[in-house]
Design brief:
Number of helices: 3
Distance between the termini: 107 Å
Low-confidence stretches: 26-34
Mean pLDDT: 81
Number of strands: 8
Order of helices and strands: HHEEEEEEEEH
Helix content: 10-25%
Largest sheet: 4 strands, mixed
């Protein structure tokens, strides 16, 4: 009986030590398992940048975001000097359906509502025309 009590005490001490030493064993962080929603891939083009307006500058993958169906995805467009936005386009990867883009109140800010498919967003930049006055000089 004494031996059995010692054995049970040993097992209890072992279990308590295990609980304190390895409290996170087997747990996976949310970033490793984040499979919610679909991806939004930003396709960079010449003469400007497109980025997520709601993301930090130091993101690990700044051209890739993950959103759920129905989420509003905010985009910011930054043309190079002398260029303006020609067209912004968001295409569903599987169906090639073009999603509707909404212009936001803030200049160069746009958004779209995430659908059921992953998408690619891109912007085409065009050279701004010089005003007629400066061409005459």
């Amino acid at each position: 009986m004494k031996r059995m009590k010692k054995w049970i005490s040993f097992l209890l001490v072992l279990a308590v030590c295990h609980a304190f030493i390895l409290p996170d064993a087997g747990q996976v962080s949310a970033s490793e398992t984040d499979t919610r929603g679909q991806t939004v891939q930003l396709k960079q083009t010449e003469h400007g940048k497109i980025r997520f307006a709601d993301s930090a500058e130091d993101m690990e993958t700044p051209d890739l975001g993950r959103y759920s169906e129905g989420d509003t995805v905010p985009l910011e467009i930054e043309p190079e000097e002398g260029f303006g936005l020609g067209k912004i386009q968001v295409l569903a990867i599987e169906t090639e359906e073009e999603l509707q883009i909404e212009e936001m109140a803030e200049e160069n800010h746009y958004s779209f509502v995430m659908g059921t498919d992953s998408v690619v967003a891109s912007a085409v930049f065009e050279k701004k025309e010089e005003p007629a006055e400066s061409r005459e000089e």
